[in-house]
Amino acid sequence: MARRGADRELEVGSSAHYEDPALYARTYARRSEDVRFYVELARGARSVLEYGCGNGRIALPIARAGVPVTGVDLSAEMLADLRARLANEKEDVRGRVRLLRGDMRDKKVPGARFPLVLCTFNTFLHLYTREDVERFLARVRAHLAPKGRFVFDVSMPSPIDLARDPSRTYRLPDVRHPDGRRYRYRERFDYEPLRQVLFVAMEHEADDHSFVTPLAHRQFFPAELEALLHYNGFAIESLAGDFGGAPADRHADSLVYTCRAR
Questions:
Q1: What is the average pLDDT across 73-82?
Q2: Is residue 163 domain-shared with residue 203, that is, in the same domain?
Q3: Would 14 be classed as within a structural domain?
Q4: Same domain for 80 and 35?
Q5: Mean pLDDT of the chain
Q6: Could you give the number of structural domains in the chain?
Q7: pLDDT exceeds 60 at position 121
Q8: What is the pLDDT of residue 112?
Q9: What's the rounded Cα separation, in Å, for the pair 63 and 50?
């Protein structure tokens, strides 16, 4: 019974953040460093597979750069929004995008192998167990072309966030929702060390409406990720501390891994 409840908590924490594509797009509209990085990376590939394509924040710029991209995502809402965005693109851009809905641990792209496979913007952090990681990396290996590269980014675990009091809320700047309301915005953090999952409650409060969006991110420590990649048949080609190539050190907020199958 406890196991079923825990699974439900992770299921909601991996989906709720993506049920409002308009708010998602506005929240991350200014996040551009990873977009530039992945577009430049894709220019040298004849095709790209992106896990966690969402509503196209990265996939669309890749397609506009002239590179065919296949996007896989579990969120029906995000994929519907991306299809609506594609309708406003030029015909050649639309023709370069193929979208598939499914669980990245299992979804197969029939008959396709790619020189570049991406797992973007912390999508990897929705792999909560060792078995999840193993299943996903097996899918990546199955879809990598010979000598292809697998590139993904994850946030560096923050001791400050992991140690926060779960009974406290932390005020952040107000949020203007696409519905026109201005929301007072707070976050609450609750880290479960046994499962290494950080649960974040994103609390939005307006005078006439309030809602809470849960988010669950598995916290992978660098040495742990190195071992998981190694024992699942990958070699780390490079590791950077941001999308500009900074060293991966104690000051890094994100880790960007470039890997090849061994």
A1: 98
A2: yes
A3: no
A4: yes
A5: 96
A6: 2
A7: yes
A8: 85
A9: 12
Q: What is the dihedral of CA 40, 45, 48, 53, to 10 degrees?
A: 0
Does residue 20 form part of some domain? no
Closest CA to 210 of 247, 154, 169: 169
Give pLDDT, residue 84.
98
User: Which structural domain, as residue segments, surrounds residue 182?
Assistant: 159-217
- The answer on 191 and 74 residing in a single domain is no
160, 166, 168, 173: CA torsion to nearest 10 = 60
Residue 1 has a pLDDT of: 29
Domain membership flag for residue 25? no
Provide the whole-model pTM.
Answer: 0.96
Are 38 and 124 members of one domain? yes
The reply to whether 147 and 168 lie within a common domain is no
